[in-house]
Amino acid sequence: MLALRDIETLRMRMADGVHLAADVYRPVGPERYPVLVMRLPYGRKVASTVVLAHPAWYAGQGYVVLVQDVRGRGDSEGIFRILEDDVADGAQTLSLAADLPGGNGMVASYGFSYHGMNQFLALAGARKSGGKVPDAMAIAMAAFDVRNHWAFEGDGFRLQSNQMWACQMAVENTRLAGDLDAAHMLHAALPSLHSGAVSARPDVLEQASRYTHYHDWLADDPSYWRTRSPQSLLEGVTLDVPVLHVGGWNDIMLEGTFAAFEAFSAGRNLQRLSIGPWSHIPWGRRVGALDAGADAADGIDREIVAFFNEALKGRENPYPKVRLYDVVKEAWAGFENLPKAETLVLHLSSG
């Protein structure tokens, strides 16, 4: 582990004058390193440490790490709109990151869930604007099609999880708007939503409708999904970026991981895939009642760094290109290519 400088906080100006807040972690010394970018809506101080190592750990492996609050979240200015501003803001952040002091001009991105999806959108924005294209991406448990890999499953609206996340995001929106009464109301409602909602329009989300995206999701307008789904925005774009795709067998966004891996594999650049036994969160050896074994407990950080070392520093990567967790054998299995799945047709019968 390299020693680190004091954290620097930046105000990064976007094209429309809005400033986004970011923390930068740098190793001590005169060497120049690739820059890793994480953009997230949950607070840059948290930095996705519920599933990933702290940015300081990544910086200690020989990287400059920039962690940014997306527009309208944390200390960033503007209004938060789900995945709507991440095309332009993400692309501009990549370009600014390429010129960071201590960086060597190479820029990669990493992150989980929302901050996996906005990596796809930053790529779309960079291609559209002619800006800095990421030199690599590590994308964990992200939807490639926001409607079908996240909000809906088999055309069924994910009622409870959608309401929980909408309420969670609205708490921060109300706080930043100074509406503390609404913030307290939403926060107090979270346990009841978690216990199992039965109404498509719970009172708390009706009362706080101006602070939440929930009703847009419930309306299910195809044009809404097209403007914020990576699959739509990357249609026709050359997908020639090295990517490590990470998923979980019990993750609600697993179809998105496979869809993105398939789409990017049509290009010429290196694609890697790891599927652990995990649910969306947390990642460990236990998934509900299942104990998946000690090999499932180490998370994914060392594999992410090995991938970035390979893609950005030309080092040998000890991991197989495709790594799948066998929950029966409680061990990882390596493959050169994704094995073909066998289809088993089952029929219902009466009795």
What does this structure look like?
With 351 residues, the protein is an alpha/beta fold. The chain folds into two domains: 8-145 and 241-335, Rossmann fold (3-Layer(aba) Sandwich); 152-224. Helices cover 34% and strands 22% of the residues. The protein contains twelve helices and 14 strands. The strands form three sheets. A ten-stranded mixed β-sheet has the order 1-2-4-3-5-6-9-10-13-14, sandwiched between helices. It has a two-stranded antiparallel ribbon with strand order 7-8. Strand 1 and strand 2 (19-25) form a beta hairpin. Helix 2 crosses helix 3. The radius of gyration is 20 Å and the shape is globular. The model has no long low-confidence stretch (mean pLDDT 95).
Name of the CATH homologous superfamily of the largest domain? Alpha/Beta hydrolase fold, catalytic domain
The multimeric state of the shown protein is single chain
> How is the main sheet built?
10 strands, mixed
Classification by helices and strands: alpha/beta
Number of domains: 2
**Overall CATH architecture of the largest domain:** 3-Layer(aba) Sandwich
How are the strands of the biggest sheet laid out side by side? 1-2-4-3-5-6-9-10-13-14
Helix residue percentage = 25-40%
Order of helices and strands: EEEHEHEHEHEEHHHHHHEHEEEHEE
Low-confidence stretches: none
**Total helix count?**
12
The averaged pLDDT comes out at 95
